[in-house]
Specification:
Largest sheet: 9 strands, mixed
Number of domains: 1
Number of helices: 9
Strand content: 15-25%
Distance between the termini: 38 Å
Order of helices and strands: EHEEHEEHEHHEEHHEHH
Low-confidence stretches: none
CATH class: Alpha Beta
CATH superfamily: Spore Coat Polysaccharide Biosynthesis Protein SpsA, Chain A
Shape: globular
Number of strands: 9
CATH topology: Spore Coat Polysaccharide Biosynthesis Protein SpsA, Chain A
């Protein structure tokens, strides 16, 4: 059994309750006692009934819908005030079938220089989603959207998404996805929570980058979870505009074409594999 406390949070917005319960049961079926915060940004509290599923679930209705990162910060503040050592950020379309929690927390507990971790994230068919990345440039974002010219794109994406690294290698990546993330709350106290300038998109990249400046941000493929990747920004004009606004916020903060730190961090990341 784990000798330290952990918590988790899921931000909701008009979610499918069947899918959501699959995510929740992935944790509770492992037999752990922990607090799960459901921060519901939906206009109505239709999902409040889930709170009765387990006495350790805390439902917080947040109909002003301030965005993903702000909502997660509500849960992180609660976790800190309750004395949690570690905290999982979980998407409602995540599920897993084996004990992911023990290995991830044990690794982080034994490596105190690790501030943030993510497991291998799989599609429903078992293929790997390429989520760890180098720090992005504006050109990176454009190429990922256009996927052209094909020859340039293929060479770029192999490097940018670290696809050339063997799938079983644990490594330090400056960008981790926020779909399933373990946070070291001691590190969070030092570097801060999600930046509320991002309504959605880029908030996980921003947190990864800030964390990576002082701690390791580890991709940990010894365990895996399943994720129903939707890529809403490629399907909805409204979400695409949210994506663009967040991209501007990110590059205004960190630098557009002149970002010396980005070059240094990306070079150090690639040097791990030489």
């Amino acid at each position: 059994m784990l000798n330290f406390t952990f918590s988790a949070s899921i931000v909701l917005y008009k979610n499918n309750p069947v899918e959501l319960m699959k995510a929740i049961n992935s944790f509770y079926n492992q037999g752990y006692t922990f607090t799960l915060y459901l921060i519901d940004n939906s206009p109505l509290n239709d999902l409040q009934w889930i709170e009765s599923h387990n006495s350790n679930i805390i439902y917080i209705h947040n109909p002003s819908n301030p965005g993903f990162g702000v909502a997660q910060n509500i849960a992180i503040k609660e976790a800190l005030s309750c004395g949690s050592n570690y905290h999982f950020i979980v998407n409602p379309d995540i599920y897993f079938t084996h004990d992911v929690v023990t290995k991830m927390i044990t690794y982080m507990h034994e490596n105190t220089d690790v501030g943030m971790m993510m497991p291998s994230v799989l599609n429903e068919d078992g293929t790997v989603q390429n989520l760890p990345k180098l720090l992005p440039s504006p050109l990176s974002i454009l190429l990922r959207k256009l996927k052209k010219p094909e020859m340039i794109y293929n060479r770029f994406i192999e490097k940018y998404e670290l696809r050339f690294v063997h799938k079983d290698v644990t490594y330090n990546s400056p960008i981790l996805s926020g779909c399933f993330t373990l946070l070291n709350l001691t590190a969070i106290k030092e570097i801060g929570m999600y930046d509320d300038r991002y309504f959605m998109y880029f908030e996980d990249w921003d947190l990864s980058r800030r964390m990576h400046q002082k701690y390791k941000t580890i991709y940990f493929p010894e365990v895996s979870v399943y994720h129903g990747y939707d890529s809403g920004a490629n399907k909805s004009s409204r979400l695409f505009m949210v994506f663009v606004k967040s991209a501007f916020a990110y590059f205004n903060k960190w630098g557009w074409f002149f970002d010396i730190e980005r070059k240094d961090i990306n070079r150090e990341t690639l040097n791990q594999f030489i």
